[in-house]
Amino acid sequence: MVGCTVLANYKLISFDKIPSTQTYAHNLIDAGRATDHTAIVAAAQSAGRGRHRRTWVSHHGNLYASFIFASPERDPRLSYAVAVAAAEAIASFGIHPQIKWPNDILVDNKKISGILIEYSGPFVIVGIGINIKSNPTVSASYETTKMDIYSDVPKTELLNRLMRNLDKWMRADFARVRERWTDLAAMLNTTVKYQGEPAELIGINENGALLLRRDTRYILVYGDEISV
Predict the structure, then answer these.
(1) Do residues 46 and 79 both lie within one domain?
(2) Which residues constitute the domain of residue 208?
(3) DSSP letters spanning the chain
C-alpha cells in the first residue's frame, strides 16, 4: 500500500513494504518523476541495502527512509551534515549517539543507524535507517542496538525531527558542521587501521577529507573505510 502526503516541507511517499526505498528513489529519478525534498519511507524492506551493497535487514518497527534532494554537483562534505542531522535526531530523545566515520551512528559503541548516500543525475539520494524496535545482527564483531532500549520513540516524530535536521544541517556553513561532527565523532584521537596499517584519527579538514596521522606523515582520506 502506498500513501502520499506532505510533512515538514517534504513530499512523503510511504509504503508498508517494498524491496528498497533507495531503489525506489533511483527509479523515480530514472523515470523523470523525482522532485527536490521527496521522502520515500517504508515500514519494512525485502531487499534493503547499505554501502557496498551490503544487506540491510529491515523488519517492521524501525525507520527506513530515502530522501531525494536536488544536487547538481557532488560534495564530499554532505555526508558529515547528514550524519550530524541523524545523530541529533536520535539525541533529541535523550539518547547519546556518536558518529563512526564514514556512515554509522553508534550508541554505547553499538550501531543504531546507517547512512547511504548515492548520486543520480541532478539529484542525491540520502538513505537512512534507524533501529527503533529491533536491532538485527550485522556481524559477530559489530554489535547493534535500538532506540527503544533508551526512550519511547514514536516513528513519525523521529521522522519529522530527522527531516527538519536534514534541512538545518545541509544548509549550514561547513565550519559549523565540522565543529558539531567533531563533538560527536567516535574514535577521535585514537589509533585506527587504514589500508591495514595503524594511523591516528585526527579529524576532518575544510574540504571534508578525513585526516589521519601516521608517524610524521598526514594522510587525507575520502570515502575509504577505516577500522579499529
Answers:
(1) yes
(2) 191-227
(3) -EEEEEETTEEEEEEEEES-HHHHHHHHHHTT---SSEEEEEEEESS-B-GGG-B----TTSEEEEEEEE-SS--TTHHHHHHHHHHHHHHTTT--EEEETTTEEEETTEEEEEEEEEEETTEEEEEEEE-SS-----BTTB-B--GGGTS---HHHHHHHHHHHHHHHHHS-HHHHHHHHHHHBSSTTSEEEETTEEEEEEEE-TTS-EEEEETTEEEEESS--EE-
